[in-house]
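As noted in the main text, all predictions were made from sequence alone. Below is one such record, for Beta-barrel porin 2.
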Amino acid sequence: MSATYMIARAISGACIPMVAFGVTTVPAMAQRYDPFSKLGTLGASGNPLDEDQPESVTGRSRPEYATVPIQAGSLQIMPQVSVSSEFEDNVYAQENNRTSDVNVTVRPRLSISRPSEGFAWSLAGEYEATRFFKLTSENTNDYAFKGGLQYQVGSTTTFQANVLHSRNSEQRSSPDSPTGIIRPNRFKLTEGYADIRHSFNRVSLQATADYQRLTYRDNFNNLGEVVDQSFRDRQVYTGGLIAQYTMSPSFAIFAAGSANKRDYRTRIGPVPARDSTGYELALGANFAVGHLMRGTLRAGYLRQNYKDPTFSDNKGLLLRGELAYYVTPLVTLTAKIDRTASDTGVRQAGGYVKTTATLQADYELKRNLIFHLEAGNENRNYNGIDRTDNRFTGQVKATWLLSPRWSLQAGFSHRGQDSSGVSSGRDFSENRAFVSVLFKGL
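Prediction:
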């Protein structure tokens, strides 16, 4: 996915205080509601009885640095623009013949919202233009348009819906991106998500529905030949249900399940359509260990059944969890693990099972200066071919809040991939360094 799409999700998600690192509880709309929280995520609901939890470094309120939106009657308008420059030492993510370059990215964004305790809505649009100094074929123009609403039915039921349409550029370092193409892969994503939540006494229920449509543009190699990407075009339908019982202010158990259907374009050629149906079933808990450790963990079973006999089914352990340790008010440690079945752009494979584990640390050196460290590993076990990828990522980043309108950020990241098997992919490593400035409001 493009940086526009991922960063927009990350920024909007960071604005929402989390409860036990699941989905937020029913909030006061004007203070917490953001319809652009991550679309399509089936998470455990928060513990509604737990109101005395520590704040994380990144989730802590900083009123003196909070941007005040433009007020137009009942509407709130928030313009912003970020400008960043990044150095990459291996733009094409190759094992040999590394090529480096510097790029500049400009990202304007405008959001309009109407906060309300009964009915709230929001609209936003953003554009991202990236320009390279030497490798102009890597230049990209991406955009995203989003809309969302939330409706409170009485005091115990909440309905929300979100829509998204975006054009994105696939990173060269993605395992799904083929080598030898003349420019980054481009694709469009249309997504709609809705959920309804109802609580009574200690029981809460959440039902979700998600629709995605992805359409990829064909590419070209250095000889001018077409590199087909249409075999990746698909529509994905997902529905889910979570039932949770809160046993105490520090412990809640839940059962979660989801089912999906993935429809690909009909294929006439060497790559069969990868239509499939699948499901996930899990039991889990939101919990606290003392006052300084909070987490959520689910374990269960996942299965993805492919229609074409060319591909074997993906199945096995489902594991998803997040644990936060509030070492001090100035230091937060977070560990995450996720194991799930995903689609792929590798032609011969039906998909893969991905296991991701990360560890991150946030440190508030000063009220307005936050350091972020992160290290993680991603393992991809492909279905239908003998290939396993291991990808390591490390990152250090600093955010400096200068004022309610201005902030600076700088960081360095390292990524490496080791691919093994008869049909192994490429091995590579890359380093990136960036600096960016963000302006919000007027």
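The chain is about 5% helix and 60% strand. The longest strand covers residues 351-366. These features were considered when defining construct boundaries for the mutagenesis experiments described in Section 2.9.
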